[in-house]
Design a protein that fits this description.
mainly beta, four-stranded antiparallel beta sheet, 11 strands
Length: 118
């Protein structure tokens, strides 16, 4: 059974930093297609960053230069480092994964709330 276990998040003032973690287990691995997606209650999902299975990265325009996706193979963990956070970054953040980019991700973490106050 595939599972994406998330941790991190919380509340921070504008300009601060937070780091999210996502540990995959089951039939999904760090080298598969991984993404961070966020959603504000009542609004649609927004892709924060996608890393395809060849390691290519695509960041959303609103987070370029501030957010960084990375992985630690030894810890089997995917990270999202978020710097210079803004109130508009407030959302529920999800780790998502799939074996290929040709279909929407089937596997999702439980979500973690990020709240940025001004």
């Amino acid at each position: 059974q595939v599972r994406l276990a998330q941790s991190g998040g919380g509340s921070v003032q504008a300009g601060g930093s937070l780091k999210l973690s996502c540990e995959p287990s089951g039939y999904i691995y760090l080298d598969n297609c991984m993404a961070w997606v966020r959603q504000v209650q009542g609004k649609g999902r927004e892709v924060v960053v996608i890393r395809d299975n060849e390691g290519r990265l695509t960041y959303g325009d609103s987070v370029k230069g501030r957010f960084t996706i990375s992985k630690d193979v030894a810890k089997n963990t995917l990270y999202l480092q978020m710097n210079n956070l803004k109130p508009e970054d407030t959302a529920m953040y999800y780790c998502a994964a799939e074996h290929t980019l040709t279909i929407p991700p089937r596997y999702w973490g439980q979500g973690t709330q990020v709240t940025v106050s001004s």
